[in-house]
Write a structure and sequence with these properties.
Layout (H helix, E strand, L loop, with lengths): L3 H8 L4 E8 L5 E7 L15 E4 L5 E9 L2 E8 L2 E4 L3 E4 L13 H13 L2 H8 L3 H15 L12 E10 L3 E8 L4 E7 L3 H9 L3 H6 L2 E4 L3 H10 L4 E4 L1 H26 L21 H6 L2 H5 L7 H13 L1 H16 L5 H16 L4 H12 L1 H10 L4 H16 L6 H12 L11 H7 L2
Parallel strand pairs: 2-5, 8-11, 11-12
Antiparallel strand pairs: 1-2, 3-6, 4-5, 6-7, 8-9, 9-10
Helix pairs in contact: 2-4, 3-4, 4-17, 5-7, 8-12, 8-14, 11-12, 12-13, 13-14, 16-17
């Protein structure tokens, strides 16, 4: 049998005394422990020395520790309550576990590391705990590791903001990303001006003044918050969203054209079974071709396949209005490929004049929207700031939610996002200094 010092080293616990080790009938190993004298009768919340109150109603308590070669390790220790001058009567602190937790520090850190890299179902199966237990463990570990969250707000120069859905029924979260570090610095439930204001209210006047660029989509609430809290910052609109506006306008024109073609298609009698006769009239497929042209019209000219190129050429001959809308979309996309700001402004001015007189209502309305966001679009071209990084992080967030098969608690989900997408690093128990020094002796 290992001596008590070796058992304590393997458990990787501090301020703990080993009393007894017992092998149970189910091959679990029960280790009786108690805290050293200096760490007894401490408040479980603040850790301050407090007066003994009573032994409580539970008597001895148990905690799960990291398994040994597939055997469950259970720590057992006497419990008591103390009368803290700040928090009142609470359960005493245990140096090997967090307050209100039934797992040791190292067990929870290993679980959190696995949750960052695996699905919650796999974590629950490997660690032999309940699926619902993984979420609270993630929240506790994130709270302990994120000691100074305000430090992320220092030296902010370029930030990006976007909302993403995390559940059906228009359930959104708002994320703020530091473009210079590529990390998430703030997450909150909901979206809109009232939510984004909470981020700026956490910043000091000096931190707000340091922000120079803010990227995002064309939402009004982003513009309003930037004007109110960072008047000196330049607003940038992601090119992806600008082209998406043009794609929506083009799709509206395509749908209108398809409806007109379907309405003008003459009704034809039902065909009889078998091959049609040579002199039989051919079926008018104009409406069907327009309906199936969405993918071809959505691509840029350089990326079209031969069949898609032929379809666009057919649209140019048969539906000039739809083809003109396609050329307007392509012209707006090419605005972002200009080398200088002056060339971009000239190209955008020419595009606005063309769209204003194109006699296509969808693009006439779009040019008004472009004019409203003129400065933000020019800033995007000048500074080259896009929302690609935050869109990638949104995809990572959605992947995390799918891997976990959803979260019932929004706080646990936000903790997972911070562990996976921020600068917080979860270490495995053997990656820490005390383990490295023990095995290097």
């Amino acid at each position: 049998m290992l001596n008590k010092k070796s058992i304590k080293t393997i458990l990787n616990v501090k301020h703990t005394c080993i009393d007894n080790v017992t092998m149970l009938a189910d091959t679990s190993i029960m280790i009786e422990v108690h805290a050293t004298k200096g760490h007894q009768c401490r408040c479980g919340i603040c850790g301050k020395k407090s007066k003994f109150y009573d032994n409580g109603n539970q008597g001895a308590r148990t905690w799960r520790a990291c398994d040994w070669a597939g055997h469950k390790i259970i720590l057992v220790a006497p419990s008591c309550r103390v009368n803290c001058p700040i928090h009142g009567v609470v359960t005493c602190q245990f140096p090997w576990a967090r307050h209100d937790s039934k797992f040791t520090y190292k067990f929870e850190e290993m679980t959190a590391w696995m949750a960052v890299n695996c699905s919650k179902t796999a974590v629950a199966a490997y660690m032999r705990i309940s699926w619902n237990t993984v979420g609270p463990i993630i929240a506790r570990v994130e709270k302990d590791l994120d000691i100074n969250p305000e430090e992320r707000f220092n030296n902010l120069i370029r930030i990006g903001v976007d909302e993403t859905s995390y559940r059906k029924g228009h359930k959104y979260i708002t994320t703020v990303v530091n473009h210079d570090t590529g990390n998430v610095i703030w997450v909150a439930q909901g979206h809109g001006k009232t939510i984004f204001e909470k981020f700026f209210k956490q910043l000091t006047p000096e931190q707000r003044a340091s922000i120079q660029l803010v990227s995002g989509d064309g939402a009004k609430w982003i513009d309003e918050c930037v004007r109110e809290y960072c008047p000196n910052a330049n607003r940038c609109i992601d090119p992806f969203h600008v082209i998406e506006w043009a794609m929506d306008a083009l799709d509206n024109v395509r749908v209108e054209t398809w409806r007109e073609a379907k309405k003008n298609t003459p009704s034809q009698p039902k065909t009889k079974p078998g091959r049609p006769k040579k002199d039989a009239p051919k079926k008018d497929t104009t409406a069907t071709e327009i309906k199936n042209s969405k993918i071809a019209l959505g691509k840029s000219t350089s990326n079209l396949t031969p069949n898609q190129q032929a379809k666009v050429e057919w649209i140019a001959k048969t539906e000039p209005r739809l083809y003109r809308a396609y050329k307007l979309k392509e012209a707006l996309r090419l605005v972002f490929y200009n080398d200088t700001v002056e060339e971009a402004e000239e190209a955008l001015t020419a595009w606005v004049n063309w769209a204003r007189h194109c006699r296509i209502p969808a693009f006439v309305e779009l040019q008004r929207k472009i004019v409203r966001h003129w400065n933000a679009i020019i800033n995007t071209i000048e500074y080259g700031l896009t929302n690609a990084r935050i869109e990638a992080i949104n995809n990572k967030i959605k992947l995390s939610i799918r891997m976990a098969y959803g979260f019932r608690n929004i706080e646990n989900m936000i903790a997972m996002i911070m562990l996976r997408c921020s600068d917080i690093k979860v270490q495995l128990p053997w990656e820490q200094e005390e383990w490295i020094s023990f095995f290097c002796i």
